[in-house]
Amino acid sequence: MAGFGDVFDWVKHQVSSRVPKADLDQRDSDYIREQLPGLWLLASLYFRADVRGLDRIPAEGPVLLVGNHSGGNVPPDTFVFTLAFSSYFGVERPFYQLAHNLVVSAPPLGSLRKFGTVAANHDNARLALQSGAALLVYPGGDYEVFRPFWERNKVDFGGRMGYVRLAREAGVPIVPIASVGGQESVFFLSRGQWLAKLLMVDKLLRLKSVPIALAPPWGLIISDLYGHIPLPSKIVIEALDPIEPDGDDRAVHEKVEGALQAAVDRMAAERRFPILG
Questions:
Q1: Which of 131, 151, 189, 224 has the CA that lies 20 to 30 A from 218?
Q2: Overall CATH class of domain 4-186+234-269
Q3: Cα–Cα distance, 195 to 83 (Å, whole number)
Q4: Cα distance between residue 146 and residue 141, in whole Å
Q5: Where exactly are the structural domains of the chain?
Q6: Where are the transmembrane segments (predicted)?
C-alpha cells in the first residue's frame, strides 16, 4: 500500500511532467504581428500605458532584462512591456519572457508561448540568451508579485540573485526594467506563505505564496489561481541604463535592486492617486 511520501512524489511528477519543454521556435513573429495593433490599443486605452527608455536597451544581440513584478497572476507590467518591446524593436527581434510553470502549462494561456513565454528555469534562460535573444526575467517571482498593497512600490527579489550568475555566464549586460501601477490593479492583503506551507504547494507546485486579495469579479480571492479582472490602473514602465555583471553576485544584485528602487520611487512620486496614476 502506497505511503504518503509515494503519493506526494507521484503528484509532484504529474505536475512537472505537464510543463511544456522550452521550444524557442514556438515564438511566432507572424502571430505577434497580427495581434500587436489590437493589443497595444487595448493596453493604451485600458492601462494608459507609458513605456520609457527603450533606447537604453542594446539595439541588437542578447540582453538580460530584469524587472520588478506586480499584478498577481494577471500581471499588466509583462503584458504592456512585451507589446512595447515588440513595437519598438520589431517582431523579428527574438524576445522571450520567463513565467511560472503553471502559467506556461495552462491550456487557456497557450497563446503566450507564441509571444515567447517559456517556463522559468536556468536552462531555459541560458538557452534563450545563447540564441541571441533578449530575455525578460522577474527574480522576485511569486514572492514579489503577491506582496501586500501597502508595499506596492517596494522592490524585493526575496534575496534571489541567480540572474546575476546567468548574465555573467552568458556574457550579457543587465538592463533593469522598473514599473509602477501593476500592484494597484489588484489589492493583495497577504502573500499567504503560511497557507502555501500548510497546503504543501511550496513543494508540489514551487509556489511559495497562496495570496489573499480583493479583486473583481470574485471579491475576496484566495490563491489567484483562476486569475481576476485587473483594475484599469495606469502602468508606467522605464528601461534603465545597462549594468555589467562585474564583481561578486551580491554587489551586482544590490546595484540592480537599488537602481530599480530609485526609479520606482521616482515614478511613484509622479502619481497623484492609486489606480488613476
A1: 151
A2: alpha beta
A3: 34
A4: 9
A5: 4-186+234-269
A6: none
